[in-house]
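Re: the multi-chain job from yesterday

Posting the exact lines I submitted so nobody has to dig through the queue logs.
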Amino acid sequence: MISLGNRNAKHAVTDEELSAFADGELPPHRARRVAAEIRAHPRFADRIHAYWRREAALWRALDPVFQESVPHIEAPRARRWPTAAALIVAALLVTGGALHLTGSDPAPARFADMVLQAYMQPARASGEVSAPRLFSGLGLQPLSQKQLQLGGREIMEYRYQDAGANRLALYEMDRHTAIQDGWFHVMSDKSVPLVRWQQGSKSYLLVGDLELSELTRTAMAMQRKISRPRAAPEQTVPGPAGPPSSGTASGAPTPRDAGTTPATRAPAPTGNNS
Amino acid sequence: MSFEQQICDQIPHLRRYATALCGDPGAADDLVQDCLERALRKRHLWRPSGRLRSWLFRMLYRLYINQRTSAPVRKEQPRADAGLDQTVAADQEDHVECQQALEALDQLPTEQRAALLLVALENPGYREAARILGVRVGTLRSRLSRARETLRQERDRPAARRRPTALKRVK
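And the result, C-alpha cells for all chains:
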C-alpha cells in the first residue's frame, strides 16, 4: 500500500491515519495534526471524501436489506429447528415482504387489504361484546370483538388500545394448511404495518397504529401469552383460542375453543360481518 | 427490555451485515438463523452488562468465518448485484456507483471486507469493532485502511481495466 508520507517526512500522514481520521478514531492531538495536513494539502481531503463516497454507495446499496423488503423467506427447515429454542428463534425472525398464506387461502396481498379495510372500520358497532382480557398483562385495554367474513373465511377480530391510546386489532382464523410455519411475517408496505404468525391450528394477524418494531414486539408477546396456559381468572374470559396448555405454539392443530370450557366460551357471534 | 426484544432490534442490522458479507440474501438468512439459534442456546453466556450488539455480531462473524473454512461448498459465490435486487430508488448514475462499490467489495480479502462493512454499516467504535472481529485495534485500523485504498483505487481505475467480478460465478 502506498502511503501518503512517512513519519520522517514533512507531511507525516499515513493511510491508516487518514482512515482513522475519517472515522473520528484518532486521538485528539493526532487528529489536530492530520486536520492541519488536510487543510494544507487538498489531496488528503479528496482521499477522505473518496472513502466516504464509496462507503455511502455501499450503504445505499444495502439499505433495502435493512429497510425490510425481503420478498420471500422460506419457512425454517425441520433439520434446523430441533429444539424448543428453535421456535423462539423462528418467532424472532422478522421477515419482510408478502404474507404467505397457503393452501386454499386467498391471495396474500388481497387478503391483507381486506384485513386493513376491516381494521379501518369503527371499533364499536351494535351487538359487539368486550374483547378478551387475555393480553391485559401487555398493557392492552380490550375494546371489542366480533366475527367477520373476509374472503369467504370466518375471522375473529379483537380490538385493543395500548397505554398510548394506539389502536390494535388481532385477527384470528383457522389455518387451512397443515404446513408448519413458526415465523413471524411482516408486511410493512401497507399504510399500517401487519404481522402474521401461525400458532397451533390458528393463524393470527396483528394490525396496529404502531411502529413496525413495536408491533412485532407486541405480536411476540401475544404469541407467548397465547401459548401459555391461562391463569384461572382469565379462563372465564373469552379470547383468542390458541393452543391448549399441553400443546406447543406451533405444535399439533388445536381446536378453536381449546383452553376454554363450554361454560367459558365466547358469546355467540353477533354476525357483524363486513 | 427483554433479551428477546433486544435481539429482535438487532435482526435488521445482522441481516444487512450478513448480506454484505455473503453477497447472497439466501446465504445471509441462513447465517442469521444460525446466529440467532446459537445466541439463544448460549444465552446464559451473555452478561447483561455487556453490549448485545457486540456479542451478536461477534457470533455472526465467527459463524461466517467457520462456514467459509469448514464447508467450502457453502462459500458464497460473490454476487456483484447483492442488495441491488431490491428496489433502489435512485438515478442510473447512483445505481452504477452502488454496483461498482459492491463489485469492488468482492476484490477485498474476507478480513478486510468484514472490517470495512462493519465500520461503514454499523459504525461501532474501533474498540468494539476489534472486539467483534477478534483482532487488535491496530490490526483493525490496518485492515480498514487497506480496504479503503483498494476501493478507492478501484473506483479511479478506468472501467475497462477493472476486474470482471460479475464473471466470477461458476456453476
